[in-house]
């Protein structure tokens, strides 16, 4: 026995409206059409579902049990329709973003704050990793942001869009001997105790490659996970670190970013799937308008 969903919905409407006549008006059907659906539903079950009671109906025991299930079907359909309506207007939804630490900490919070003013019903879930970890999590996110001198290998269907150019700077305390310098060479930095990011960080890879290209062997004293850990180690006087200029652009504390000579630049890149969700598309439109 396979029940007809339309008959269940009609039955739930008849019960809620208190009779066939009112239900027919609600459903924009004729009374005979509604009665016919009820009859077919009872035939399928082999049990009476209701009795006439004046101008209304009185449910049997089976009818009461079936109505509880039919109403769940009606509620689920109403919820699904509400979701479809909200997606059509892109007023609600969820966007899962995986971002490497520089855009995740210093670029996207301002973007999200501005976007939330425009689309407060769209929930954004932002998680920060190093660049290598971001590429491993793309299957579980809607959009991704990475940093580096080149675009990483992408899953099928994804493509890259350059958002902006970033610059890597040497990070020192304001009382450091290099603090008065407008720029600093890798040769000079190779004599300092250096603090690098963890393995998998594109910033670390780019800094290490720059030293190799210059034929230099840096003195690396510490390797720490995350921008915040590097900044704190520099703040404590443990050495010279490296970070995005974005990481110190609003810093009025004891840290200072010094340009490298020659400059060490990289791209901030947005990674987009081939068929982004409606909510993601709205965020992408907002990002284009900000540029």
UniProtKB/TrEMBL annotation:
User: Does the keyword Transcription feature in the UniProt annotation?
Assistant: yes
Check the record and name the InterPro entries matching this protein: LysR_HTH_N (IPR000847), LysR_subst-bd (IPR005119), WH-like_DNA-bd_sf (IPR036388), WH_DNA-bd_sf (IPR036390)
What Gene3D superfamilies has UniProt attached to this entry? 3.40.190.290, Winged helix-like DNA-binding domain superfamily/Winged helix DNA-binding domain (1.10.10.10)
Please name the GO terms that the record assigns under molecular function.
Answer: DNA-binding transcription factor activity; transcription cis-regulatory region binding
Report the residue ranges that make up the HTH lysR-type domain in this protein. 1-60
What SUPFAM superfamilies does this protein's entry cite?
Periplasmic binding protein-like II (SSF53850), Winged helix' DNA-binding domain (SSF46785)
Q: Where is the signal peptide?
A: none
What keywords does the record list, in alphabetical order? DNA-binding, Transcription, Transcription regulation
Coiled-coil annotated residue ranges, if any: none
Please name the Pfam families in this protein's record: HTH_1, LysR_substrate
Q: Record keywords: Cell wall biogenesis/degradation included?
A: no
Family statement: Belongs to the LysR transcriptional regulatory family.
Name the chain's protein.
HTH lysR-type domain-containing protein
The opening ranks of the lineage are:
Bacteria, Pseudomonadati, Pseudomonadota, Gammaproteobacteria, Chromatiales
């Amino acid at each position: 026995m396979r029940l007809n969903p339309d008959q269940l919905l009609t039955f739930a409407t008849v019960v809620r409206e208190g009779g066939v006549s009112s239900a027919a008006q609600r459903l924009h059907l004729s009374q005979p059409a509604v009665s016919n659906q009820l009859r077919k539903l009872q035939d399928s079950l082999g049990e009476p579902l209701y009795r006439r009671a004046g101008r209304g109906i009185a449910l049997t025991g089976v009818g009461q049990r079936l109505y509880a299930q039919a109403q769940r079907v009606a509620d689920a359909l109403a919820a699904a329709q509400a979701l479809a309506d909200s997606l059509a207007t892109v007023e609600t939804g969820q966007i899962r973003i995986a971002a490497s630490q520089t855009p995740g900490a210093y670029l996207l919070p301002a973007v999200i704050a501005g976007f939330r003013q425009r689309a407060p019903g769209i929930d954004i879930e932002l998680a920060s990793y190093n660049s290598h970890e971001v590429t491993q999590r793309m299957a579980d996110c809607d959009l991704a942001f990475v940093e580096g001198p080149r675009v990483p290998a992408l899953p099928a269907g994804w493509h890259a869009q350059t958002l902006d150019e970033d610059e890597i700077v040497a990070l020192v305390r304001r009382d450091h001997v290099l603090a008065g310098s407008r720029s600093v060479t890798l040769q000079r930095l190779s004599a300092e105790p250096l603090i690098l990011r963890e393995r998998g960080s594109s910033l670390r890879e780019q800094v290490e490659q720059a030293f190799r290209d210059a034929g230099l062997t840096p003195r690396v004293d510490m390797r720490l996970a995350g921008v915040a850990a590097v900044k704190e180690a520099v703040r404590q006087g443990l050495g010279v670190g490296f970070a995005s200029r974005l990481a110190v652009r609003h810093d009025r504390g004891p840290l200072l970013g010094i340009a490298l000579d020659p400059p060490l630049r990289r791209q901030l890149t947005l990674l987009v799937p081939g068929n982004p969700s409606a909510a993601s598309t709205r965020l992408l439109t907002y990002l284009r308008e900000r540029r």
